[in-house]
Amino acid sequence: MDADPDDALADVLSQVRERVEPDADERAAMRAAVESLTRRTEAALEERGVDAEIVQVGSTARDTWLSGDRDIDLFVCFPPERSREELARLGLQVGHAVLPEGREEYAEHPYVVGEIDGFDVDLVPCYAVADATEIKSAVDRTPFHNRYLDERVTPALAGDVRVCKQFLSGIGVYGSDLRTKGFSGYLTELLVVEHGGFRPLVEAAADWTPPVRFDPEGGGASFDDALVFVDPTDPGRNVAAVLSTENVARFQHFARDLLADPREELFFPEPLEPLGEAAVRDGFAARGTTPLAIQFDRPAVVDDQLWPQLDRSREGIADELHRRGFDVFRTAAFADDDRAALLFELAVARRPTVERHTGPPVHVRVHAQRFYEAYADADAYGPFVEEDRYVVEREREFTTAASFLASDAVFDVALGVDVEATLEAGYELLTGDAVGRLADSFGRELSAYLDPTVRAR
Amino acid sequence: MDADPDDALADVLSQVRERVEPDADERAAMRAAVESLTRRTEAALEERGVDAEIVQVGSTARDTWLSGDRDIDLFVCFPPERSREELARLGLQVGHAVLPEGREEYAEHPYVVGEIDGFDVDLVPCYAVADATEIKSAVDRTPFHNRYLDERVTPALAGDVRVCKQFLSGIGVYGSDLRTKGFSGYLTELLVVEHGGFRPLVEAAADWTPPVRFDPEGGGASFDDALVFVDPTDPGRNVAAVLSTENVARFQHFARDLLADPREELFFPEPLEPLGEAAVRDGFAARGTTPLAIQFDRPAVVDDQLWPQLDRSREGIADELHRRGFDVFRTAAFADDDRAALLFELAVARRPTVERHTGPPVHVRVHAQRFYEAYADADAYGPFVEEDRYVVEREREFTTAASFLASDAVFDVALGVDVEATLEAGYELLTGDAVGRLADSFGRELSAYLDPTVRAR
């Protein structure tokens, strides 16, 4: 413990601030790239006689980017009179003209991404609507966010935004993608602005009692989330909608940790060493559990489509295992560019030959007699009478969790369309020592899963 | 199926009626014994200058006894002015005078039991109170019951009472002792009288929807039992208070069975063959469960004291096993004159080294920090964040059910005073194949437990 933790925190924050601030050379290179891109975009628009405004958005527009980030977002804002078809066509034409090596990606409408001078550039067409509540497509909102923050993120606050982003990243809760379910850049900036800095935000978060609500412009709708930040440009939208309850709690945990024991390590954690096959086997053996895994080719969809399906499959299969008596201790989903896996760590992986099945109350004569007759001559024990009901002990469909996972009954679970199609083409069921083979692709994830010193994740 | 089931049932009932009716010789012997006993009791009372009425009660008094029963109950009714001490002293004096070879037993006050001419005689002193609601001791009620039934059990109904008792006995629900929790003789007679015979009773019972209530004299209190028969001599008492919900349901089941397929076998079932050691082992192996048993010397108390304690111990230990993650499939308690045993058949007998332990919500700062600090440096995985709470995976106290049953933690369960004292002196823990040794004392009970053809018990 430091004698004066206030000073210790200030020291840590100023160290971090320095590490994440882009230096003059980096800024100059960024500025030059943006200027050149803007000029070429203007030229491409002029050439086509199109009237549209070019807006640089995102963290690099507002000086809230972390040193090392190489993302430039340029929005081309067309008048709302243009049809969607025109917008898409012109957007792609301009995009390919500016980024001749670029490729097309799709959000609500297509856009071009490419590389210029070592920067990753997104050139996105959108509508220049008068108000954020009148947007025609989700991307139309971005210029409004940009404008709102531009007016509020002072140079001093920009430094705090960078520190905050690095903190959230260090503790694993930065990013509004559907794998992380964390804090978006926009949400981070809003929170820092709202609290007047990173430190007051952390001090407030340490004492939050969710649900926590911020509505700086007032009049926002009500939302059923642990953290609500009403979008100042659209009262019908919670900026923190993707943020999970767990990540709010993690942020609170690490906010307290930072205040109690300020250290740079929270911002820049050591990466975990990937576990090897033997270490994975030994890890589960020490816990005395039974790990089972399904491994398969990664479905050819983007992360934001894949992860909700992996989560749904993992939860659906875990529920079904539980329903069938195989108590699930912990689960995980893993994916890289080639492979995906669902891990089920079981507390109970084997059940007796028989299972209890409770029938109707004996006094409900017709139902009761039907139940009794169905089982009296079947290969079962009973029916017995227990309290006021018939109970029978009949043969269990699956006596091991592995036999369930190897069966077609897995497909009765709602798995998500791409995961289901992939599993139908075939999957690898890993049981016993073979579970160690997960380490071939997911050694680092398994390190986080099995390392007893990993906390609050 | 018989072409006319009504006739088939009538045939069966008349066969049974014949088998259970005492013949002329049996009646004559009974009458002679009662007369001789009454004379000798009168003489003993006269000798002591005591004014008391002698009343023969019970089934042998009302001709509702089953052929072969050898029980004579003689009540000596003293004026209520006598003190309890006098009643006890005089009762024992008279008892020993009439039954010189007799021994003393204790209900609310002592009485003498003995054997005369092959009959088992209870000679019970009681108070001759004016009304059953003014009784001074539970036995004072019996003469009232006797008088009530004397006026209502016609010779025709007496035959039906005998048939009904034999039926209840055959299906295992006759007897208001605390092991059986079935129908008392008094309740049986009341039900037959109320319905005007055995057959109408069975037809009604097949359609009962518990709670079922009978209150022939009206004005009875309300009771929370599956079957309520308000005592016609005391509106504050449910004659069926001891009868379990299960035994009501069993009676309904077998009532329907008798109506659908009338057969004497329901009244006189074949006794089960006791299982041997190997058959017990094979029986559990076929079910794929893990049986564990505690065997010990029978505590030196009467059945009505022992059985509630065995039931409480069995349920208490089963609950604790369940709480500790060892899923209990079925349980049983056994006792004979020498030994007692508690059997726990488990679906899950082994758990992982680790167990989940859920802590407070992260946002409850003081509690949450205390929890976190308690486990962060302990030999445990986590704390993690799950939803809004800390969760830790810590070492489990008992990883096998057998280790729990072998430990002192068993004594943290409420066992009942005599069972607890006996277990403290030592018990045998039977696991694996050793469970077969239960067959040495309880082969017949285990036959009922493991035989898949035993129904509705």
Question: Could you characterize what this model shows?
Answer:
Two copies of one chain form a homodimer. Chain A contains 15 helices and 15 strands. Chain A has four domains: 22-139, Beta Polymerase, domain 2 (2-Layer Sandwich); 152-269, Orthogonal Bundle (Poly(a)-polymerase, middle domain), CATH 1.10.1410.30; 277-350 and 399-450, 2-Layer Sandwich (Alpha-Beta Plaits); 354-395, no CATH class. The first copy, chain A, is of the alpha+beta class. The mean pLDDT of chain A is 94. Chain A has helices at residues 5-20, 24-47, 59-62, 84-98, 142-150, 155-170, 185-195, 198-205, 245-260, 277-287, 303-323, 365-376, 401-405, 417-424, 439-450; strands at residues 53-57, 71-78, 103-106, 110-116, 119-127, 212-214, 227-231, 234-238, 290-297, 328-335, 339-346, 354-361, 381-386, 389-395, 428-431. At the A-B interface, α9, β12, α12, β13 and β14 of A face α9, β12, α12, β13 and β14 of B.
